[in-house]
Amino acid sequence: MDNYKKIVEVAVRAIDSKRGSDIDVIKVDDLTVLTDYFVIATASSNTQLKAIADEVEYKLSEAGFEPHHIEGKTSDWICLDYIGVVIHILYKEQRGFYQIERLWNDGESVDVDEFLIKE
Predict the structure, then answer these.
(1) Secondary structure element (H or E) that encloses residue 55, with its range
(2) CA 11 from chain center: how many Å?
(3) Rg for the chain (alpha carbons), in Å?
(4) 3-state DSSP call for residue 58?
(5) Which end of the chain is less congested by CB atoms within 10 angstroms, N or C?
(6) Is residue 28 a contact partner of residue 37, using CB atoms and an 8 Å limit?
(7) Is residue 23 a contact partner of residue 112, using CB atoms and an 8 Å limit?
(8) pLDDT digits (tens, 9 = 90+) for 56-96
(9) Cβ atoms < 10 Å from Cβ of 19
(10) Contact call for residues 27 and 35 (beta carbons, < 8 A)
């Protein structure tokens, strides 16, 4: 498994563990030089938004991956940039307004179920 796919896997599991919803993963390596994957998730409150972002950062650090840049720690949209994977965690109103996944609808949708641990 390449590093970017591992980052996606760890991030999706971390988001799911904090009950993030509507997790989308879009592979965009054929469409842009910005990144290879976008991970997009929704939080239902500002507290949950921060908890999800903190968990993603913690779990990825445990796995040996450090962010290149983090934006929005005090807003309704936190972006964690791991170069080949950019993770967007948005409060539900922002997610509906910006519709990031619509901007990248030419990308390849990745099934997140393959990353989730079933109970």
Answers:
(1) helix 46-62
(2) 6
(3) 13
(4) helix
(5) C
(6) yes
(7) yes
(8) 999 999 999 999 999 987 789 999 999 999 999 999 889 98
(9) 11
(10) no
Whether 15 and 41 have beta carbons less than 8 Å apart is answered as yes
Backbone angles phi, psi at 14, to 5 degrees: -65, -45
105 has a pLDDT exceeding 90: no
Residue 63 is encoded by which pair of tokens?
A: 């796995």
Best CA proximity match to 9, nearest among 59, 76, 73:
59
User: Crossing angle for the helix pair 46-62 and 3-17, nearest 10 degrees?
Assistant: 140
Angle CA 37–104–32, to nearest 5: 60
- 118 vs 45: CA distance, rounded Å: 25
For the beta carbon of residue 76, count every other beta carbon within 10 angstroms. Answer: 16
What average pLDDT does this structure show over 88-111?
90
